Amino acid sequence: MSAAPEQAAPSGAEQPGDVLAEAGERVLEGGVGLTEEQVRRVLALPDERIPELLALAHRVRVRWCGPEVEVEGIVSLKTGGCPEDCHFCSQSGRFPSPVRSAWLDVPGLVRAARQTAETGATEFCVVAAVRGPDARLLAQVRAGIEAIRADGNPIQIACSLGMLTQEQVDELVAMGVHRYNHNLETARSHFPNVVTTHSWEERWDTLRMVRAAGMEVCCGGIIGMGESLAQRAEFAAQLAALEPDEVPLNFLIPNPGTPYEDYPVVEGAEALRVVGAFRLALPRTVLRFAGGRELTFGDLGAKRGMLGGINAIIVGNYLTNLGRPAQEDLDMLAELAMPIKALNEVL
Asked: With contact defined as beta carbons under 8 Å apart, do 266 and 223 qualify?
């Protein structure tokens, strides 16, 4: 079992130029994301500058994305038994995690989509733990989408089904899938330490095909997998180069049975620096709170993150981990006076 990584702590002794002043001109006024080197300097800011960073990131979010928050629910269509060795994932069949292989039937998908829509969410993402979809999985997705529409549910449907061929991309477009999630997970330089059964480039190729086919691209990753501060900046720059429509920010959940089960949870101040830095790198992108935020932030920190550049949130449970009750997140958005994006603004 791998030992827990040594966390890269920002150095209070480092005195870079005033990168937040640079960000005010470049990002807030110009709408252009920070460079990789500038993101690294933001990630190295001392704790006492975090409120200033979050305030700037929030102003950037409101100026370039608007005040609305996009709400999404996710459901696992095929859980566990994945042949890949993503070290963070309890669904890998290679690790002794307690997650076992299971399928959700079409009526279950319809119920999950209905429950998601009832929260006010505009997005419903169907996820499968696979290297890539086979004919059976695609048939289940097609039947599920048809049944959701027959139920009178207009919610937007996204998918996350692993790596795709061009033919599979075309099939999903024909089904009406409007957004595809495929995370790069981490910086290209760090990826071989996280996954060995496929490459970063294979993921990039799927994203390129998805974008070319006209689907929206959802691509993010996980913070806290032993990456250095410089690699976090590298990752932000690589996402900016991809120009995704949405970036989900996950923070590592050290799941039992995985190689990362003993890794520490990312601390709140460190995570807030990441939130602010990624917003300044991606000023026009939907930046979504995703897995691990409950462990990393707690209630108070989550509110700070929402006021620090986040403009989307996954409500309810994640794939194999429990989240907060959806109503608690909706109450938080109401308390912060953040309107939920209406479905007709997304369609």
From this structure: yes
* Phi, psi of 265, rounded to the nearest 5 degrees: -70, 140
Neighbours of 300 (CB within 10 A): 9
Mean pLDDT of 62-67: 97
Question: In angstroms, how far apart are the furthest CA atoms of the chain?
Answer: 61
Contacts of 159 (CB under 8 A, 6+ apart): 125, 126, 127, 141, 172, 177, 179, 180, 181
User: Taking the mean position of all CA atoms in its chain, how far away is CA 258?
Assistant: 20
- Mutual angle of helices 135-150 and 166-175, in 10-degree steps: 10
Distance of alpha carbon 225 from alpha carbon 203, whole angstroms:
18
pLDDT in tens, 243-285: 999 999 999 999 899 999 999 999 999 999 999 999 999 999 9
pLDDT score for 323: 59
The separation between the first and the last C-alpha atoms of the chain, rounded to the nearest angstrom, is 46
Q: Give the phi and the psi of residue 71 in degrees, each rounded to 5.
A: -110, 135
At 302, list the tokens: 């989550």
Do residues 192 and 86 lie in contact, with contact meaning Cβ atoms separated by under 8 Å?
Answer: no
User: In 10 A of CB 100, how many CB atoms?
Assistant: 10
> How far apart are alpha carbons 154 and 101 in whole angstroms?
30
Please tell me the distance from the alpha carbon of residue 309 to that of residue 287, in angstroms, as a whole number: 7
Sign (positive or negative) of CA dihedral 324, 65, 54, 251: positive
Residue 268: its H or E element: helix 268-281
Beta strands 123-128 and 102-103, pairing class: unpaired
Reduced 3-state DSSP string for 13-77: CCCCCCHHHHHHHHHHHCCCCCCHHHHHHHHCCCHHHHHHHHHHHHHHHHHHHCCCEEEEEEEEE
SS3 state of residue 179: strand
- Cβ atoms 336, 299 nearer than 8 A: no
Q: Per-residue pLDDT tens for 301-314?
A: 678 889 999 999 98
Tokens 């994006």 sit on residue: 341
How many angstroms separate the CA atoms of 61 and 8, rounded? 27
Given a contact cutoff of 8 angstroms between Cβ atoms, the answer to whether 141 and 77 are in contact is yes
